[in-house]
Amino acid sequence: MITVSNLSLRFGKRVLFEDVNLKFTPGNCYGIIGANGAGKSTFLKIISGEVDPTTGSVSFTPGERMSVLKQNHYEFDEFPVIETVMMGNQELYKIMKEKDAIYMKEDFTDADGERAGELESLFAEMDGWNAESNAATLLSNLGIKEDLHYKQLKELDGNEKVRVLLAQALFGNPDILILDEPTNDLDIHTISWLEDFLASYEATVLVVSHDRHFLDAVCTHIVDIDFGKMTIYTGNYSFWYESSQLALKQRNRPK
Q1: Which CATH number fits the domain that encloses residue 189?
Q2: Which residues form the domain of 184?
């Protein structure tokens, strides 16, 4: 669960949002909507820790793992595609690399053996033996063919990189998933797969998207950023839109 308490963000005299108090709970997908410049992407960056709020705080259920769709398409250029995906679970990836480094040592000590045993146990607990095949399945589902899985990321084109970074975000079933414009550069078939994936996902998902059909397919709630305030509505985008239009008509009705 994510708890947002008394959150505000100001740039000089400009107030992006003020006194935001929200809770995001597991099993729900929250679509963040608002006019251009309202602060949708900035709000996601506050949640992920990339941007500090002016006041207030964001807290999480202890032990929950968060994954964020990366926007820098060059960050992992020097890594193989399959490894880039597995980096989505940083803890598992670190265990994997430390384990491999120990086994490559020429002067393998008793202490190394003990540490390797500890790492092997952690690796097994985290389903590490299936990590590579799980990453490959994600890549294939997102339209990245097997012959690209072991190439360096820099060898892929822009559309393919987007899909790899999306696979990285989804890898290992994170407890909290932060997605900013996840359907950019995806074809209809891949968007449909992502809709199905998120519709049955049991974690907490926050998504910004201009694709209204996508928001309709995946969202259980809509968070509307309007005039510096944030309000959560139950239902998908169409339900929110119809409700807001009805409320607007009622407000404008002659007294």
Answers
A1: 3.40.50.300
A2: 1-64+175-237
Please give the average per-residue pLDDT across 111-119, as a whole number: 89
Q: What percent of the chain has pLDDT over 70?
A: 97
For the CA atoms of 91, 92, 93, 96, what is the dihedral angle to 10 degrees?
130
The answer to whether residue 97 sits within a structural domain is no
The span from the CA of 16 to the CA of 227, in Å, is 8
Predicted confidence (pLDDT) per residue in 208-223, tens digit: 999 999 999 999 999 9
Ranked by mean pLDDT, the top range of 41-45, 184-188, 248-252 is 41-45
For residue 209, count other CB atoms closer than 10 A to its CB. 21
**Burial bucket for residue 216 (CB in 10 Å: 0-12, 13-18, 19+):** middle
Number of structural domains found in the chain: 1
Residue 98 placed within a domain: no
